[in-house]
Write a structure and sequence with these properties.
- With about 110 residues, this protein is of the alpha+beta class.
- About 20% of the residues lie in helices and about 40% in strands.
- Strands 1, 2, 3, 4, 5 and 6 form a 6-stranded antiparallel β-sheet that branches.
- The radius of gyration is 18 Å and the shape is flat.
- About 5% of the residues are buried.
Amino acid sequence: VSTRVSFPLVELDLSPFSSTTEKVPLYDLTGFITHEGSGADSGHYLAYCRNEVDGNWYEYDDSTLTKLDSAHVLTKEAYVLLYQKRPSLSVEAARNKTMEMISAEEIVK
């Protein structure tokens, strides 16, 4: 792959491509794969993933792990993009409450 494609990190909106009249969910990028080399049968693949806990992006290159900033992530030529549907507000509220309870429990210990 040698053609750069721009892609959003957050809030991918697929509603322009949907035939439904219902609200279409938004998606956030959670990871992608790049390829360095002359062809699909040779070269080197790298994985990039966003850590859901700390929100940071990481590059996985064999046994090497490198933390990246979002601006650097957007410069990559993605081969495969992996998106996750954004949770509904009720799911997000429950997740936040759970994280608060876990944090409070750790402070008590």
